[in-house]
Amino acid sequence: MTRRTFNPGRALAWVAMAVVIVVTVFPFWWMIRTALTPAADIYTDNASLLPEHPTLINFLRVLGLTSEAEARAAGGSGAHLDFAGYLWNSIVYCGLIAAVQTLFCAMAGYAFARLRFPGRDLVFAIVIAALMVPPIFTLLPNFILVKDLGWMNTMAGMVAPTILMTPFAVFFLRQFFLSLPRDVEEAAILDGNGPWGIFWRIALPMSRGPLITIGLTTTVWAWKDYLWPLLVGRDEENRLVTVALGVFLQQSPNTQPDWTGLMAASTLSVLPVLLLLVFVGKRLVQSLNFTGSK
Amino acid sequence: MSSTKPRDDRRAAWLFLLPVLVGFAVFYGYPAARGVWYSVTDYNMLNTATYVGAENYTKLLQDDQFWNAMLVTAWYVVLNIGSQTLLALGIATLMHRLTRSVVLRATLLLPWLVPNVTIGLLWMWLLDTNLGFVNQLLHTVGLGPVGFFTDETWAMPTVAGINTWAYTGYTALLLYAGMLQIPQYLYEGASIDGAGEWRMFRRITLPLLRPVLALVLVVSLIGSFQIFDTIAVTTKGGPVSATQVIYYFIYLQAFKYFHMGYAAAAAVFLALILGVLTAIQMRLLRASRSDLA
Asked: From which domain of life does this come (chain A) (predicted)?
């Protein structure tokens, strides 16, 4: 019979943990709370945890669902906003990069881990050396390349540098394929499968965990991308949420930013990743174990 | 019975590698070579690049703005990495000794999932001089208002603090994952011997975590040197270049003044620093694996 005795040290530790959680979550609460506040109230109603006159008007106007006059009346600058469109662009951008990049890097990782061909280790070393090249270094020439190709302000130009590969994904997936047991594959060879058949029917299905891990990580990073899409995808048509937020801030008067609108747009930019956290949070958290203790 | 004659998958292999090799050649290899070339030319996006030797580099070394950028970046790295690592270590230890809750871990991860642009906006609002929540709070205890982004002394600590807020949870979870690898019986044994939490932290957690800690530290350092988004949204390098970090300096040179050659030279400098750090990271990666295996 053990009875839990009160332990002051442990209680204090829990208090500290609670403070950490509040500090983590409160800014998001305040963002949503501001997004639900009418712009006219912003000077008077900014101390309570809930808005006095909750409204959805800020969301409606940043989604482009109100007329210009209504948007102006609700505190907007009158500039056209279409966050539904920007969200869609971001989803397409992330989906394309995550899906295609994961597949291609898995193919390469498998070849580096399992196939036998002359020059394999040398080619792998060269590809991995790209890990040492920081993004800013290739950013300037890639910008000029995309400009010369005539891909400015197109989705193709935006996804081009990352859709085919990142050195990290190749490295990560190769490491995983190296650790797969060989016997299943060898049995499949005896059954008359070629390299492609083994990869597609055996190696890929056995690697669901790592594939999801790398796919999710790629999605999150792509969702956060700012500088590159800012340089090559400024046009309204292909604008991502992050770029649109920056433009929205610039359009809004310096002395008196459209805080309620900005916070509504910010909330929209957080919503998809929040859903990701709710549905695959466990996997995301576990993926940190995975990459942290390679 | 494995294959009796030596296998050669040459044809299949190159097909498997094709997309990645194209991506590598076109968007990594070629631009890297081109970047080095630009750094010794006067390219400005309108002219044809002409070779100018080491001119960009000598100019860079005499450019006060460049040295300011290096200094400001270093200041940022010290503030950000210092606070972030200490806090993350503390939070990871708390988690490790208190709970295995996945919900708690997911909550800590939340800021990491959010774009830096959103985080910048969020804190611009929270820290707004007149209406921001934090200044209201300071007001009620008789302080402030503080111009977090507009005051030259405060601007950089503010930006560093924001990014610490955004990345501490993520860093803590990486450290926590490392702590989970430490055998539990060590703590049980120490506890029977009457060791307190602080002693266990000093004698067990810290020494056994060292390889992971070193790795996490270097990875954060590499990220920290590349601070851009938050500054591009909040301070735009100001007030008076107080937050004009090296990434922002390169960005301005390239895309505002179109000094492509000059910007490329500055990027070579940054690449050298980051290259050294990455080399260290790869060594640590190898070391940490053999240590914890």
From this structure: Bacteria
